Amino acid sequence: xxxxxxxxxxxVLVAAGLAVTGGSAVAHGRGYSAxxxxxxxxxxxxxxxxxxxxxxxxxxxxxEDNICLIAEQIVTVRxxxxxxxxxxxxxxxxxLFHQKSLDGRAAERWLVGPRDGVxxxxxxxxxxxxxxxxxxxxxxxxxxxxxxDPACVGKEWVRPVTELDLWRVNWARMVRASSGALADGIVxxxxxxxxxPDARTSKVDVSPVGxxxxxxxxxxxxxxxxxxxxxxxxxxxxxxxxxxxxxxxGVGSNAYGLGRDATTSGAGMLxxxxxxxxxxxxxxxxxxxxxxxxxxVEGAALVGDPLIEIGHNGKVAWSHTVSTARRFVWxxxxxxxxxxxxxxxxxxxxxxxxxxxxxxxxxxxxxxxxYDTHFGxxxxxxxxxxxxxxxxxxxxxxxxxxxxxxxxxxxxxxATSVRDxxxxxxxxxxxxxxxxxxxxxxxxxxxxxHSVVPRVTDSLAAACIPAPFQSLYATSxxxxxxxxxxxxxxxxxxxxxxPGILGPANLPTLVRDDYVTNSNDSYWLANPDRPLVGYPxxxxxxxxxxxxxxxxxxxxxxxxxxxTDGLPGRGxxxxxxxxxxxxxxxxxxxxxxxxxVRLCEAQPMATASDGTTVDLTAACAALRRWDLRVNxxxxxxxxxxxxxxxxxxxxxxxxxxxxxxxxPSRLAIDDPAVRTALADAVRLLDGIxxxxxxxxxxxxxxxxxxxxxxxxxxxxxxxxxIINQVQPGVGYPKVRHGTSYLMAVELGRGGPSGRQLxxxxxxxxxxxxxxxxxxxxxxxxxxxxxxxxxxxxRSDPNLVTYRVGERHS
Length: 809
What we know:
- Helices cover 29% and strands 22% of the residues.
- The protein has a domain of 135 residues: Penicillin amidase (Acylase) alpha subunit, N-terminal domain, CATH 1.10.1400.10.
- The strands form seven sheets. An eleven-stranded mixed sheet has the order 1-33-4-5-9-10-11-12-19-20-22. Strands 7, 8, 23, 28, 29, 30, 31 and 32 form an eight-stranded antiparallel sheet that branches.
- The two termini are 37 Å apart.
- The chain is of the alpha+beta class.
- The longest helix is centred in the N-terminal third of the chain and has 27 residues.
- It has 22 helices and 33 strands.
- A hairpin with a 5-residue loop joins strand 24 and strand 25.
- Keywords: Hydrolase, Signal, Zymogen.
């Protein structure tokens, strides 16, 4: 039964002269007003007459559930982590990086230009962020004494926010896979010892207060009230250099776009299955947002973001997977002899710009000199991209100027078909580091890597990547360009939205009536019946080995269409799509488990990496009885997980690009590293029964309860990815990241229908009623229903309605 909550904010609304008529929020005079209908599991359905009021409702609702997460985001982009959370190496490095962007007015520059949503953000998006800040601040004013999340209750760093703060958060998210991933390397960059910078400097003083620390990373730091010195490691930079693709560390996804030939109804269907952290400010948040006649979308966004990023309207559904494309390019600088802060460009000398950035810490201000070129910042990755007396490396980050994303997602939410959605992608080119997979009501499915990619064409790569770096480009897609020639600048594609990025004609796109899929490999096999080939290497690789997760993802679709997966019938319903996604097959186990068991039974004694002799008998028995799944009742799956993670998945047969979904597949039983990996797994699992049920040892804490969690590591070929670390003698007591938002939606003629779930629940606050409910639902492979039509929403037995708003001058 629906009821209206008489909260203090409602009193404020009425006193301000704001009224609600006809079931939607209407503001009299100048003000904000939004109707919030909380459905089951606390999911807000927010309706407002304009985007400012919609933003207000979103900011208020998100603050109710996750105010500490948003407040910490603001601390980060204000470069105040050291002030409030302690002066460890991670916080100081973060603060210096963000203070540099503050000093350089990065967010402010985003807002200059024609407000067309491409050259500068539109008025609608600006209104949305302005309203979000106002709604957040209204909750803070009304609820500060009521905040009961132990993460920030009573903390001085929970303060009002501004619209500009939110743009800074958006900037930080855009550079997540580029400058943000290289932040430590940007902070650490310094000319060779003994070389003094010769340039103008600017300095900002920040007063230090506070001592609390919430994050930490080993490192050495000295230099209170002066220059930052000592050891500044660059783990983020190294991770990007060594990574197989351009993905931000710790995130990924699966997605299916199913067309008319793959569904039993003939309507389009979508699986959204992003894999993101279960804790911190990169959690998803479910919501439904509506401005009547202008915008109506249900789905999820990252906490702190004002618009739906993965979801559906009445005719189109879409999801994102992390793309393999690179987001930045390196420029090798030829330095002037005797002056390592000057470089040669077209035969002339250019000086680096040097700026001193200062941040406050409890021990006093700390400063660091940053070095920039006309390409972008100088970056150091020790042992790979060093700054010597004759060479340095700068990057161009094409997402640092990507102010188009929020307008892009707004336009996606208004698309009426796959064709229309593709036009949005072509015109706006805003996706920062993700692919898009979509389906529409007419039964068309779309895959596109229309993300923001530096314009490194094959001809530019051949002419401008020096010979020592050609192999790096071929294997990883990292482009190191000759920084001494203007001919090696990125240039502009005629069809590109902005200079320096590949235009739509150079980006892979596929529309199908059957299906498209992606699980974080490149675009090549979005549909194996129509491989995508011939694109610049910077986007991804072709005709190379696919991950086991990619392979099982395609097999699942093909077997469902053929009716050979053990489930009734052929083709997909949303129920069958849910069953397939959470079927928890371990494809690597299907390939090699039997050979592994035969090997360890024939040779039960093995030597671990540390030289210890290990009896494999119990491990062999557990693997033989294992059901080849990572369900709660699966026994022994953790033995295979640790075997794979120890490097045991070694194959005897080579990869065959003509059979990419079935090769390689045979265990290399003659490779001694296979038995060593199993011995290492047994050693690591000492104290944990090798035949334990997964649900007894893999859990997620919620208060004093431990919720059993199914799913597993992608190295083993698990589609339903759950990442955690084994604790000796205990098991897997905390999920780090993995399956987060789940949506299986069908776009039928009667409106969207299907299932959805947020695995870690709507709120990070342990005192919230929405802290554990969806997590328990996920444990049981349950779901919440899509609630898009008025009938679907009205049928929710837990619906609670209230109104929020305020008058402003």
